[in-house]
Amino acid sequence: MEKTPGCRPQLERLLGEAEGDFRNLLRNPPPCSQDADMIRKATSEGIKLPGSDTVTTLSASLVEESLIVSDLFQLNELSSCLLLLHGEDQLPRYPGLTRGLVAVLLYYDGRKSLVQALRTLIAGRPGVTWCTDTQQDVAELVQDTTGSLMTQHSLTDTILSLLSSLDWSQDVSALQKHSALGDPQHVHTLSTLHQDIRQGLADCLYCYSAQSGLPAQAVIRIIEFLTKAGPGTAQGHLDGVTSALLMSVLAALDVSGPGREQLPVLTDPSFIHAVSGELAKSRKWASPGLLAVLQLAWAASLAALRQDPALAAVLGDGGALEEDEMFVEAALEGRVFHCLPSLLLTSSAFRKEEFYLRRLHGVLTDFLSLLPLKVKDLRNKADDAARNQLMHEQEGIQYTVPLQAQHFSQLLGCLASLYKGDPLSLQLSELYWCPTDSASDQGRHAPTKQVALYKFVRLAGDLLMPSLFVPYVTMLTGLADSDNAAPHCFKLLKINGASSSNVCLDHFFQSLSQYHGNLQQSSRTSGPDHTIYRTQPLTKGISPQEVAGLSAVLDLVTVLADRSETARVAMAEHPGWSLVPTVLGLLACTVPTSIKARLVALLTALARSPDIVHPLWQALEGAGL
To answer: Are 586 and 625 in contact (CB under 8 A)?
Structure first.
């Protein structure tokens, strides 16, 4: 609504007209035998259509099509006739289609518009996740209207029922039966509209939950629905509908941030018991990873409540709040950190949603900062397994890492996937870095959570076992992938050089130089290869594990060079690192294609600084590349 005085009466009138449509969401006016008789007689006697003062005589073909459309959509015959007449008016916009095919498009488009209107209305509620730039009186009207739909008219049940019944395969079967499908473009448009309807319905629940939370019964109904939901894409990702429903539950369980004291999770005395009981039930899930994600988020919320004395006193149920560790264990048994990347974090659709990313960021950072002993336990188990693996390899015995020892490396992988690329420039990974300069006031007054996360980043790299090297460096790559975070990561890697840590720039570039030297020596001793068939492997002199480590290191230094001017200049000009000559030398050697591609990407990142371009070009010419 425009921010002009007196707009509330207009909105109130419009909402009054649409109230029945919102209450009976996507419910068609049913067929009526009397209306069907009126339509049939309209070929001779005519009919006065709604909105018209004159009697209109209908053609026999229009009457027949009206009855077909009525049977197809279980729609009132008069509404079907009006739909066809509107389709006939729109024919110039759809060349090559008949009025019947256009009417089918308009039917789906109308349903989508209704759902989108409801979604926009709910998203306009004042709440705790985003701000709405609306007048106070309009905001109150929107809040009252949408709140009534949720509490008095069971909007959650209505939407979940629609999501269960709206099946594109069934719609296609009915459309084919009634010859209501056109060319492939027509079918594709209908499919897209159908998917948009389902997505809009799920978004309605998410928007309400994100702004105002959800009652306990609504949360339980959505969880019951999710038990039957599986990955909706060929890649194993959740589709948009399931993602929205999952995020609606995660938003309802969120207890962090200002203004949440009035949400159901903190005001309803039965909420904690109800949700805990639902997530602890032993039943089969179509996608067990969904349950594990919900259990992890709920454990983080319980831990936050338990450590806040004021909230714990208000809730007055310490026993339920002590179940956080139980839900963490259940989530780990469900392989939560194994499932998160495949279900959500690597999905392009998920990474386009700002508030989805922020909520997952909140869940993971709460877990790391509120449950440090559990994180330490995961690290200890990973270290024990790494030592056992080394001993078995020395004896030539194959060793399978147990599940309990995989969680820490998978956690590092989740963090890398979440922050990689920072597609929406949210700078979320900055929370993991604290200024290391002792003279910095910002470092002394950093929030407790930020200090805990920075401590996790540093301690995770201490005394690093070989099997954790690649996951840790990959995590650093994700955490450094923003303009403000990269300088902090660069400084940490420089500081590590003063200790015995192998996660430092000195060690990285020394390893690159050593690899280059080994390849040069190998090429001199073996002589040139005069055949067109390669007789020696590209990875000669380097193991597959070392290739993986080298790839991870190159990814990290490329991100640092791409994101930080200071890092670029230091890498190009540091005399002890000799990075540019080493990279150019490796490009001239026989190295795996994946390594060579990363070397080129590193040179590209270094060339972003104008002062480096000319010396870099001279070095390229000197190397004969």
So the answer is: no
Mean pLDDT of 377-386: 94
Element (DSSP H or E) covering residue 360? helix 354-370
Cα–Cα nearest to 300, from 268, 279, 325, 319:
325
pLDDT band, residue 539 (cuts 50/70/90)? low
- CA 174 to CA 80: how far, in whole Å? 16
Q: How far apart are CA 77 and CA 171, in angstroms?
A: 19
Q: Which two tokens stand for residue 554?
A: 């190159």
How is 335-355 classified by DSSP, letter by letter?
THHHHHIIIIIT-TTGGG-HH
Residue type, 504: C
**Torsion, CA 580, CA 582, CA 583, CA 584, rounded to 10:** 80
Using DSSP's 3-state secondary structure scheme, residue 276 falls into helix
- Check residues 313 and 229 and name the one with the higher pLDDT: 229
Question: Distance (Å, rounded) from C-alpha 362 to C-alpha 355?
Answer: 10
Q: Is the pTM of this model over 0.85?
A: yes
Per the CB < 8 A criterion, the answer to whether 407 and 375 are in contact is no
Residue 620: HSE in the Cβ half-sphere, 13 Å Cα cutoff: 12
What is the rounded distance in angstroms from the CA atom of residue 75 to the CA atom of residue 59?
20
Q: Please report which confidence band the pLDDT of residue 438 belongs to, taking 50, 70 and 90 as the band edges.
A: very low
Contact (Cβ atoms closer than 8 angstroms) between residue 505 and residue 493: yes
pLDDT tier at 322, thresholds 50, 70, 90? confident
Greatest Cα pair distance in the chain = 102
Dist. CA 118–CA 302, nearest whole Å: 33
Strands (E), 344-486: none
Average pLDDT over residues 618-625: 78
- How many angstroms separate the CA atoms of 196 and 241, rounded? 9
| Residue whose tokens read 């509107």 | 86
Are residues 376 and 453 in contact, defined by beta-carbon separation less than 8 angstroms?
no
How far apart CA 382 and CA 618 sit, in angstroms, is 47
Measured CA angle at 390 (ends 388, 391), to 5 deg: 65
Is 140's pLDDT higher than 60?
yes
DSSP for residue 541: T
Cβ neighbours, 10 Å, residue 51: 6
- Residue 290's identity, in one-letter code, is L
- Residue range 231-254, pLDDT digits in tens: 877 778 899 999 999 999 999 999
- By C-alpha distance, which of 200, 109, 192 is closest to 163? 200
| Helices and strands (DSSP H and E) totals, the chain | 31, 0
Mean pLDDT, the chain, rounded, equals 89
User: Which residue type sits at 615?
Assistant: P
Count Cα atoms within 13 angstroms, Cβ side, for 192: 7
Question: The tokens of 445 are what?
Answer: 């007054």
Residues 6+ apart with CB under 8 A from 596: 586, 587
Q: End-to-end CA distance of the chain, in Å?
A: 62
